Amino acid sequence: MESVEKAVQAVREQLPGMKLLENEPMSRHSSFRIGGPARALAFPSDVTGMTKLCAILKEHGVAPYMLGNGTNILFPDEGLQDLFLVSTERLQKIFLLPDGAVYAEAGVSLARLAAFAQENGLGGLEFAGGIPGTVGGGCIMNAGAYGGELKDVVESVVFLYVPDQGLYEIANADCGFGYRQSVFQKKAGCVLLSAVFRLTPDDRQAISERMQELSEKRREKQPLDLPSAGSAFRRPEGHFAAKLIEDAGMKGYAVGDAQVSEKHAGFVVNRGNACSHDVYDLMMHVRNEVYRQSGVFLEPEIIILPPEYHLEDKSPKLKGNVVFPTAHAAE
Fold first, then answer.
1. 208-213-218 Cα angle (round to 5)
2. Catalytic residue (choose from 149, 169, 180, 234)
3. Can you give the pLDDT at residue 270?
4. How large is the average pLDDT for residues 117-135?
């Protein structure tokens, strides 16, 4: 706590032009519309600002907690007074590289990325058009939908490694992509800055039609009219979480204003005034009932903060060591 206070003061003094919100309600930065005040939430305006900020945080022994669009996080109502949150919201550069690949910074929304690809006659990102997250968050969790995943189109990722303040570029093959996972979830201190996407030239109209078809499927099947954090649980091997939840009689089950969606049992929605404990208690009960009736253990896809809220992590661990390439000098 004391180190965070010193870091806040240092950022105020050394980076006076940086937007820094103190005691900011995280309900304003969460798709769930849930969450109490965070002690600090910074918004670097570019990659240089991000590196300077992280250098200050490192000096004070504070690890940045990165935030994209807050679309898969449950923030506690009690707030987060011992975390220094850093948003990628202002990292918004996106352009075509000379070889036709797409470069996008971490704060670019996946919807904007997909639209940019379509406008330039590049296919392969149609599935991402309705995913509410960002490039940074999407790469960290290998976001996907309707049979497509970012691992299929990411060529490389650039990140800042906070412990040595180096900038690194890592190829797709070294990202450890799997179902809703990447090596960045296992290697602490990685701040994703940008990614390069290798796509396939295609007819703009054909791409648009595929995107529209997927958009209609989302509207038909998903509870887009209520705040949520997307899929509440990961897909268990050989099963579908939504079917297991529905078969367990949990569709429509509610704790306070948190409810298993009546439209899609894989979603937990906020009917108006849900608190973090409502969501947590609901997820615990659903998980227990599914396990009791089917023997299948559901793992949360939603990130639950603070750490002591975490449901037990049963996910497989990545094997082997992460080998980072030689650092590129920061400009």
1. 125
2. 180
3. 98
4. 95
